[in-house]
Every structure is written in C-alpha cells, then in structure tokens.
Write a structure and sequence with these properties.
The protein is of the alpha+beta class and about 375 residues long. The protein folds into 4 domains: about 50 residues; about 140 residues, no CATH class; about 100 residues, 2-Layer Sandwich (Tetrahydropterin Synthase, Chain A), CATH 3.30.479.30; about 40 residues, no CATH class. Helix content is about 35%, strand content about 35%. It is built from 11 helices and 20 strands. A 3-stranded antiparallel sheet has the order 3-2-5, with no helix packed on it. A 3-stranded antiparallel sheet has the order 8-7-10, with no helix packed on it. The chain has a 3-stranded antiparallel sheet with strand order 13-12-15, with helices on one face. Strand 7 and strand 8 form a beta hairpin. Helix 7 packs across helix 9 and helix 10 crosses helix 11. The longest helix is centred in the C-terminal third of the chain and has 43 residues. The protein is rod-shaped and about 160 Å long. It is found in: Membrane. Belongs to the band 7/mec-2 family. InterPro entries: Band-7_stomatin-like (IPR043202), Band_7 (IPR001107), Band_7/SPFH_dom_sf (IPR036013).
Length: about 375
C-alpha cells in the first residue's frame, strides 16, 4: 500500500483555486477544482496552487507561460499588455481599483470576477476625463490604488485664482477655477497657482535722507493686481520681490528730492510721485498698481524735539499777532461806548444796572443808593435777605 502512495501524488484543489502542474520543471497542465492523482514515476512532480479570488495571476513567469502555452492557459487566464504610450484603468466587477503604468503586463484569472482594463492613449492627450478624475480623487485606496498619487497630478484652482499648466518646462495653458487632473507618465507636469485678487506689499522701516539731509524712517504700502498671469509667470520667478524692490527704489528717489517741510506738508504728493514712477514699469509685465500709500513718516528723537520747539514758537508768535491785532479794536470799541454814554444818561444807567445784575449773580445781598436823578435818597434791596 505504501508503494502506491509513492507512485501517486494526491492533490486537492479547492473551488476557489487553480493549480499548475509541472513535471521535470516543465509545465504540463492546469488542475481544476477537485482531487487529482498525479503519476510520479514519469519524473519529478511540482504543483503550484493559486487563489483565483485574488484575480491577478502574479507568477514571475506569467508572460512566458501565456505566450508559450497560450492554448492551454487561455481557458483559465486573460492577459493585458500596455505600450509605452498607454495607461490602463483596472476594473473589478465594475469598480476602478488600480492604475496600470505604461508598459505593464498583467494576467488575470477567469471565472472569479468580471475584470476589465480600460486603455488610455497618453501619447498626445494627458488630461484626465472628469468622470475618471472623480474616481481617482476620492482618496480611497483599494487594492493597487496606492500608486494613484504617483500617476496623477491632481489640482484644484480656487475662485479668484488661475492655474498655469507647465508641461516639460513649457507653459501650455491657463486653467480657470475648477478641478483638473493630468497623467504624469512620460512627462513633467506642474501647475503654478496665481492669485488674481488685490494684493498688498509692505515696504517697512526704510531709513532715507531727505534733500536737506534729515534722516527719516518711512513705511510704505502698495496695492497691486495681476492682469496678465502668463506674462507674470514667464518674466518672474518671484514677482512680489520685484515689486518690493521697485517700491523701495522709487520711495528713496522721491524722498531724496524733497525737503522735510515739503514731505510733512503734503504726504499725498509723495504717494502720487511713487505710484506714477512704478505704474508704467509694472504695466509692462501685466501688473496693475491700484494705489501707493505712505503709512508712517517717523522722525528721529532729536528731530522730534526740534520740531516741537518750532511748532511751539510758531503758535506763540501767532497768538501774539492775534493779541496785537485785537487790542486796537477793543480800545476803539471802548471809546465809542464812552462817547455814547456821555451823551445819553439813560444808556449809562442801563449799563450800571447790567453791571449790578452781573454782580448780583455772585453775592447773596446788594444795596444801591441813589435816586432816578443820581442823588442818594434811599437804599434799594436787589435781593431779599435769605
């Protein structure tokens, strides 16, 4: 009985398995599900068992076996081979689970799941269809989807922005807000994002000498807007640095040609001079200057004290001038009043009563002696005793 076991090799193949029988290291046949008795005496026997629910036939020599024994293996296996200009979309039961790079060879078992490979020619067209992009961008990595990040350049362009598509170092097109995907195989793809909103650039803490040799520290702010993103991308590596240096240069030129007094007297004029100087230059590169504003003009400590003294002296001088101007008018007014009272005793008496009224508001009791003719005949109580 033992000799029989040496003559036969028993092999059990499950329903979800297929086995390849090799005799003397040569492929002989496929063993379907069931129990198989393999005759040993005709040479060494080797059996390789595969689970077809894994779908992919990942044997090292898969391509060789299918090319050599296609008539036998064709009943159980299906093969796909991509050229160097093709990408494969691998579907299992209608679900996209993998991306096959160019040049890929893949063999799959029949009878387990419905398998399909969609072929995409990327020789000229590298933009990914919107429907496929939605599947690739969902972030779920099923099976071999881990390579999706290496295969796809996935980009979102937000509102008020544009994207500049650069392929192999060449600017190809401008992308409007939206979602885009590109195959990265066989080419270098980058998308540069350009902000089309208003942007501010601050030039702070600039130490500058005025025309009369006064050192100032000035803070400047410029507001710009990009009007031609392609030109900006082609001309600049960093357009903000270029604008910063331009504002800085024009600020120094403008301040250096004016005195301290003129700067302090009309700061808006400095804004206009700087904006006019840089606006035309930036317009050549597709950048519009919206406004330029000098935020702060900071004087050194000793200069603050000197200016404070000057302002104080000026205000004192103005006060003295006003006082001297008002004194003659006050004397003239008093003279006119005196003449009117001299010729009109009633007016004089009214003036006296007005004065008494003013005094009365300050004291509790007051008495006036005299009569209508000015002769003191009685006492008049202006306010009763409390």
């Amino acid at each position: 009985m033992k000799s029989l076991f040496k003559i036969w090799k028993i092999v059990d193949v499950a329903d979800n398995e297929r086995a390849l029988l090799f005799r003397r290291s040569r492929f002989e046949r496929v063993l379907p599900p069931g129990r198989h008795r393999i005759w040993r005496l005709s040479g060494d026997v080797r059996v390789e068992t595969y689970d077809i629910t894994e779908v992919v036939f990942d044997a090292i020599k898969a391509k060789f076996l299918l090319n050599t024994y296609g008539e036998i293996l064709g009943e159980y296996l299906q093969s796909y081979e991509l050229s160097d200009q093709q990408v494969g979309l691998f579907y299992r039961d209608g679900h996209l689970v993998d991306i096959l790079p160019p040049g890929t060879y893949r063999a799959v078992w029949k009878g387990g799941e419905t398998v399909r490979v969609g072929i995409v020619d990327i020789s000229k067209e590298y933009t990914i269809d919107e429907n496929i992009l939605g599947l690739l961008g969902r972030g779920v990595k099923i099976g071999q989807m881990r390579i999706a990040a290496q295969a796809v350049s996935y980009n979102k362009i937000p509102d008020e922005h544009v994207g500049l598509l650069v392929v192999n170092g060449k600017l190809e097109q401008t992308l409007q807000p939206g979602r885009y995907g590109f195959w990265k195989y066989n080419r270098s793809i980058t998308v540069k994002l350009i902000d089309m909103r208003l942007q501010t650039i601050d030039v702070s803490g600039q130490e500058i000498l005025t025309k009369d040799r006064v050192s100032l520290r000035i803070n400047l702010r410029g507001t710009i807007k990009i009007t031609d993103p392609q030109r900006v991308a082609l001309k600049f590596g960093d357009y903000k640095s270029f604008i910063y240096r331009g504002l800085q240069l024009h600020l120094r030129e403008a301040v250096g040609t004016q005195t301290l007094d003129s700067l302090l007297a009309d700061k808006d004029r400095l804004n206009i001079v700087i904006a006019t100087g840089i606006r035309k230059k930036l317009a050549e590169y597709g950048i519009e200057v919206i406004s330029v504003e000098v935020k702060d003009i900071i004087l050194p400590g000793n200069m603050k004290m000197i200016l404070s003294q000057i302002v104080e002296a000026q205000k004192e001088s103005e006060a003295n001038l006003i006082k001297r101007h008002e004194e003659p008018q006050a004397v003239r007014s008093q003279h006119n009043t005196a003449e009117m009272m001299d010729h009109n005793p009633v007016l004089l008496q009214l003036k006296e009563l007005e004065s008494l009224g003013k005094i009365d508001t300050r004291i509790d009791k007051n008495s006036v002696s005299g009569g209508p003719e000015g002769v003191p005949t009685d006492q008049v109580k202006l306010r009763p005793t409390a």
